[in-house]
Backbone:
């Protein structure tokens, strides 16, 4: 079946511009996560959505980062006024609540801020 | 601060060797410890996971050893193959937070030489 998909796969933007990254989770998965993967830093949790509950935004590094999840499915991560330190791979994962912790990851979006 | 510490950063073994990757954590609320495997250009994929009620779990050539008192766990790959060359991440999460977001180690790049 279809896995988690993300778009675009690569994004190059100029410093100061806004970017939107999209995640399509596995159909039926109720929980969705965003992570950031920087070189040598592992994966860093950003935000979590579960059903209709308020999202857990505790991992967002600054108020320039925001995310929404429409209709309990597709999610968009927005970075405003991008900075060079935002350059990283942004990964989305989804899981079906109640079936353990296994998170299924998408291929990621590689963001480069010039 | 890094909630899960992973070592070594990189590892090179001959085919058939047994690479061992180690992780340590501090948060005693963690109750789920997965290992993810990531190939270049792909998102991480769950390899094997363990909960604190057992000291070892084996799936095929992959074994997790878990030491609750020392707050350490490790991944062993038996009879390693060139196809095992990838980056491996340990992680931890807790049911108590409700979010189950994963805290990742910084990764180990494994190279298996034919």
Residues:
């Amino acid at each position: 079946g279809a896995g988690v998909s993300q778009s675009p796969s690569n994004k190059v933007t100029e410093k100061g511009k806004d970017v939107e990254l999209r995640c399509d989770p596995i159909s039926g998965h109720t929980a969705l996560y965003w992570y950031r993967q920087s070189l040598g830093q592992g994966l860093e949790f950003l935000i979590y959505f579960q059903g209709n509950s308020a999202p857990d935004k505790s991992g967002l590094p600054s108020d320039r980062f925001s995310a929404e999840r429409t209709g309990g499915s597709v999610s968009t991560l927005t970075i405003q006024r991008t900075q060079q330190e935002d350059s990283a791979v942004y990964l989305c994962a989804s899981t079906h609540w109640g079936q353990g912790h296994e998170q299924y990851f998408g291929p990621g979006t590689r963001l480069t801020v010039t | 601060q890094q909630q899960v510490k992973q070592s070594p950063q990189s590892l090179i073994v001959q085919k058939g060797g047994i690479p061992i990757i180690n992780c340590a954590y501090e948060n005693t609320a963690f109750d789920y410890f997965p290992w993810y495997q990531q190939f270049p250009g792909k998102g991480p994929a769950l390899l094997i996971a363990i909960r604190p009620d057992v000291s070892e779990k084996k799936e095929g050539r992959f074994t997790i050893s878990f030491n609750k008192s020392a707050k350490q766990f490790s991944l062993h790959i038996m009879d390693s193959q060139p196809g095992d060359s990838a980056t491996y991440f340990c992680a931890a999460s807790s049911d108590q937070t409700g979010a189950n977001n994963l805290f990742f180690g910084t990764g180990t790049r494994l190279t298996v030489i034919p």
Summary: The mean pLDDT of chain A is 91. The radius of gyration of chain A is 13 Å. The interface with chain B takes residues 4, 31, 33, 35, 40-45, 48, 50, 56, 59, 91, 93, 95, 100-108 of chain A (CB under 8 Å).
